[in-house]
Each structure stands twice: as C-alpha cells, then as structure tokens.
Amino acid sequence: MLIKRLPFNRLSYCCTMYPSREAFSLDPCLPGIEDPYVTYAALRQECAVHWCEGPRLWVILSHAEGLEHMRDPRYSRQDHLDKLIARFGAQRIFERQKLDIPYMDGEQHSRMRKHVTQAYRGINLAGLSTFTRQFVDRRLAAVADQSRFDLVATLANLLPVMVVSELMGVPADQQLEVAEQVSGFVRARGLTQTEETAKGGDEAIATYRHYFLPLIQKRRAEPCDDLLSRLIADPGEDVSLSDDQLLLIISSNFYSASVYTLRLLIGTLARAMAIHPDIYSQVRADRRMIPAAVEEVLRWDAPAQALNASMATEDLEVDGCTIRAGDSVTVLVGAANHDPRVFADPTAFRLDRVPNPHLSFAPGLHQCLGLHLARMEGAVVLEALCDRFQALSCDDAASRRMVADRFRGHDRLILEGRR
User: Fold this and answer.
1) How far apart are CA 219 and CA 242, in angstroms?
2) pLDDT at 377
C-alpha cells in the first residue's frame, strides 16, 4: 500500500514510546545526542523512509534504498535550492549555491565534476602526505609535556586548513581567518534552514569573496603549479570558470566540505581508538590495518550524517511510500551505515569488514571529490598517534560534542596519551 506520510496517531505513539523520535521529526540528525543510532534502528525497522516535519523532507534510513537514491537522476538538487530561494529570497546564499558542484544536476554536473577531478589528478599525494605528517608531528610535539590535551584545538581544527591552503596556495596569514567562516557556510548547507542560518551563509560567502577573489585574479594573471591554477582553466577540456563559480567551488568543496568534515573525522578517529583499546593495540602492532580502521570510523560514526537534500522530479516509491513530485529527500548516512542487513553487529567497531560498503562518501552521482584526501589525512593522523602513544584514553566529561545539524563530532576532545 502506498502512503504519503505516517498517520498522526501512529507518529504520536512513536514519540510516546521513544521520546527522541519527536526530536527526530524536528531534526533527523539528532544533533548533540550521544547515541542516535538506537532511534535510527527502531525507525528503520518500521520503514526505510520517514517524513520529518521540521525540515519538511523525507529521510531514507536504510542502506539499499539510500544507495539507490544516490544513483537516481530523478532527484534534483537545483530544484530543492529553488524552494529555498522562494522561501528566503533572491541574492542569498542559496541562489549562489546553484553554481556549486554538489548542487548541480545532469550534464552540467558531470562536466564540472570531470573538470575538478582532472585538477585533482595533478596533486602530488605523496608529497602532500609528507607535508601532513610533518605538520601533525609538530602539533603533537607541542603538547609532549602535557599529560592530557584537547585534540581538536591542538590538531583537528588546524590540519585540514593547512592541507587545503597548501593545495590552493592561500597565503599563511589568511588561512585561519578564512577558516573561521567555515561554520556559517556549512550550516547554510544543512537540512534545517532558518533566517539565522541563511544570514550566516551570506556573511561567510562575503568573507570568502574578500579573501579569495584577489587570489583568483592573481592566479589568472600568473598561473602556477597549484590546484587553484588548474581549476581556473583547462584548455584541453575547453573549460573556463567565472570568478563566482571558482569562489563557490573553493569555498564549498575545499574549505567547507574538507575543513569541516575532516576536523570531525580526526576527532572521531582518535576517540574510537581511545574507547576501543584492543583495536588500537592491533593497529599499533600491524600498521597495515590503518586503512581498515579509517574506513570503519567513517562507517561507525560518520562526520557527515546526511546528504544534501534533493527534490523528486516525479512521483517515486521508496519501500512502499510515495514520494510526491516536489517533495525533498535526503539519505541519513549515519543510519544507513548501521543497517544490519549489510553490516553484521553494526554498533560494534570492527576491522574485519572487508569490503566495508559504507555510504559516507556518497557513492553515486555526487560522490565526494575529496575522498582520497580524507583517507590520507585520517591515515596520517592515526599513524602519528600510534608512533607517539602506547595507549589512549578520552575524558568524555571534559569533552564537548558539537551540535550542528547534519554533522557529528566534537568541538572539544580531551585525550590522555600514555607514551
């Protein structure tokens, strides 16, 4: 039987039996809740997709349906942006996002992805890995005389900024100032939008414009061997981007997506090792397990818990529910990564998940362009921790979980390392 939304009496029953379900309907990523996966599991058992009244969209919680959504061209991110533009007005962050790769559709999206992928291929990943390790070692050496330290302030906040800035050729004196705007920009890409989040996005893009446009213009006049120069133009593909297009690509795909999610990944990776000492010992003893540990962190507690929303362009069916044309939809990646039909014992942290088909890099039409960078940085950090500390522990009481829409991780993570 096809249904539009859960009947109200059934929804009320769910909220009574599981209080966090009411919170789920208001904000499906349950920001700030220590363990949202219990609620996700209960909801997924009922149906693969649920309507959430807060952001007014459908949320897919299962792996198979989530993967199908990621590969389905009948959903449009541009059309979802049009709904936000109609709501918040023109000349706002949402109108600018239409120039951004994650929000493009069809041929335009494919063409731009190919261009950016070609630019990525020029990255010297081995050299960047060496740069990353040297920076990590310097930061950890700075707290060598401390019995405990905040990993976020010491390393996670800074490392992604420095790596991206190294790639883009951003002057050192501008790097941290630009990074301070990332939070506002990213929140304007969340599932739940308000005038406050829209204003934060507007302010962030204004700051990005102030810093990046002079750099873009300089690279146009004096190209060099960095990623920004390769993004500006590719004569072989007959691709030439406007300043506004470049501004969005740099701000979104490199500074916001990379900086924001990678800082969360680094913290979650360290915490996972701290609360799973046997796993950490295994990884220290056999460094060939580092890639598997990074992949499992991405599955076990994904830094980006949900996809950017898109809109159904025709009536579609998901697990017996009708998604009407015009309805917006997202995939709750964190829930799909805990689907027991794909991952045995999904709440357990295991290194033997081979393959590990998590959805954290959105394997479909909008697959993460920076997945190689994310894996590299995660692996380098874990290798450095293994070299420096025999054991790790985490002071959860002194730490602070971040509360931020569809992203999950820590603003403060107090680690103790035994050397």
Assistant:
1) 13
2) 96
Which residue type does 225 have?
D
pTM: 0.90
Amino acid code (one letter) for 333: V
Highest mean pLDDT among 91-105, 186-200, 263-277: 263-277
Structural tokens at position 80 = 């979802």
Quote the CA–CA distance of 99 and 112 in Å, as a whole number: 10
Instruction: Please write down the long-range contacts of 385-388, taking CB distance under 8 Å and 24 or more positions apart.
Output: 385/140, 385/270, 385/273, 385/417, 386/280, 386/283, 386/284, 386/287, 386/290, 388/140, 388/417, 388/419
Closest CA to 252 of 284, 282, 208: 208
State the Cα–Cα distance between residues 377 and 65, nearest whole angstrom: 30
For residue 237, what pLDDT is reported? 63
Reported as a single tens digit per residue, the pLDDT across 138-184 is: 999 999 999 899 999 999 988 988 888 888 877 766 766 666 666 66
pLDDT per residue as tens digits for the range 384-394: 999 999 999 99
Which tokens sit at 261? 């999610």
| Residue showing tokens 């969360």 | 264
Amino acid identity for residue 263 in this structure:
R
Q: Kindly report the CA angle at 164 between 160 and 166, in degrees rounded to 5?
A: 115
Does 10 have pLDDT greater than 90?
no
